[in-house]
Design goal:
This protein has 18 helices and no strands. The protein is mostly helical. The protein has a single domain, classed as Na+/H+ antiporter like fold, CATH 1.20.1530. Helix 6 (115-125) packs across helix 15 (297-321), helix 11 (212-233) packs antiparallel against helix 12 and helix 12 runs antiparallel to helix 18 (355-384). The termini are far apart.
């Protein structure tokens, strides 16, 4: 393993300290700082090319370990008030993605004979995730070059959409969507507790030696849940393994949250978010800005249209369905970027109540992504031939 990897655990601490000390950093936020630092280090040549496999392993492991820690702190019974709207919003997201993927295939057809393949991959990845597009690539016989180009632009444009959702999306979409108000705190004490959970100052609790005996026990429980998820997923195909692992990890994490000592452990949420911040640093460092020097315009257009155009159409549908801004944003992220990116967005919105909605709808996306992607591809091939 390259020695440069040891810097990753230090980067979230530096971002938290910066937000604690500097008002300008607080306006940017911890998550965006972690992405920015990762992108800067990755494109400055700090990490060798041999680090890519280790970076991917670290990113996947960080998300898997953090998810139970975050789920441990949730009151699932309160989440059921949100479930219906979240599922309705995810349905609207899938519809919007399919419409834009079909439109993109039609518009770039004069420039690319196999535009139907782009449309199919876009429909699959922006309702499910990377495991879906890998499976769809095999099903459609997509060439390696086309797949690499598509996956590269998917990474870059998705990061831009994540940044948009963390910064101005709530204000922008809030112009025509209602504010989040589905769950009211039970009392002022609950409201204060949740405000402290989301505060930069709350991370100081991780520095208290007395906090760590219970946090270490929860970490062992989280690690055990991850191992169970990985073990069960090993019985499934490679394309389905990631989705199965997340389903198992999420289910066991939710189950553990029903035990009061687990749910009430102080600073478990902050510890989980610290690991998510590490994930953001790793993902940022894997973004290669040099790919923008030779642009494949049809692929870039389809990816951009389906992500941003699909989000716009999704928002319009949410207005008609009376779905609030935060639920729209978290389900949009879970569809476009998959469940691992839900916690950073929930943190940026200072709304942990939507965390479970995002993860749940993202899992549903994993389940339907292959079907929608292959359906769109063959439909467009028939229509455009």
């Amino acid at each position: 393993m390259p020695w440069q990897m040891i810097i990753y655990p230090m980067l979230p601490a530096a971002a938290i300290i910066a937000c604690h000390k500097m008002a300008a950093a607080r306006k940017v936020g911890i998550v965006l700082l972690c992405y920015a630092v990762g992108i800067a280090l990755g494109n400055a040549g700090f990490f060798p090319e041999t680090a890519s496999d280790h970076q991917e392993l670290l990113a996947n492991g960080a998300v898997a370990f953090a998810l139970p820690l975050l789920l441990f702190t949730l009151d699932v019974r309160r989440w059921f008030a949100l479930a219906g709207k979240a599922l309705l919003s995810m349905t609207a997201a899938c519809l919007a993605t399919v419409v834009m993927a079909m439109l993109g295939s039609i518009l770039v057809r004069p420039l690319m004979a196999d535009s139907w393949q782009l449309g199919g991959m876009a429909a699959g990845v922006y309702t499910g995730g990377t495991p879906n597009v890998a499976a769809i690539r095999t099903a459609l016989g997509v060439s390696k070059d086309t797949f690499v180009i598509f996956h590269t632009y998917d990474t870059v444009v998705s990061v831009l959409y994540i940044i948009f959702c963390m910064t101005v999306a709530r204000r922008f979409f809030g112009l025509w969507l209602a504010p989040f108000a589905a769950i009211a705190p039970d009392d002022m004490a609950t409201e204060q507790e949740e405000a402290e959970t989301e505060s930069v100052l709350a991370f100081q609790g991780l520095l208290r030696p007395g906090s760590w005996p219970r946090l270490l026990l929860l970490s062992l429980l989280s690690g055990a849940i991850v191992l169970i998820g990985v073990y069960i997923s090993s019985f499934f195909s490679e394309n389905a393994a990631a989705a199965v692992a997340i389903v198992v990890i999420t289910t066991l994490g939710i189950g553990a949250s029903f035990f009061t000592p687990v749910r009430k452990t102080k600073f478990a949420f902050q510890w989980g978010m610290y690991i998510i911040y590490l994930f953001c640093c790793v993902v940022g460092s894997m973004v290669d800005a040099s790919i923008l020097t030779h642009i494949h315009y049809p692929a870039l257009f389809v990816v951009t249209l389906v992500i941003f155009g699909g989000a716009g159409l999704h928002a319009i549908l949410c207005r008609l369905l009376h779905i609030d801004t935060d639920t729209f944003i978290i389900t949009s992220i879970s569809a476009i970027c998959s469940p691992p990116f839900v916690p950073p967005i929930a943190e940026a919105l200072h709304n942990k109540h939507i965390l479970l909605s995002g993860i749940t709808t993202g899992i549903i996306g994993y389940a339907v992504g292959n079907y929608l992607g292959i359906f769109v591809a063959y439909l467009m091939r028939t229509l455009l031939s």
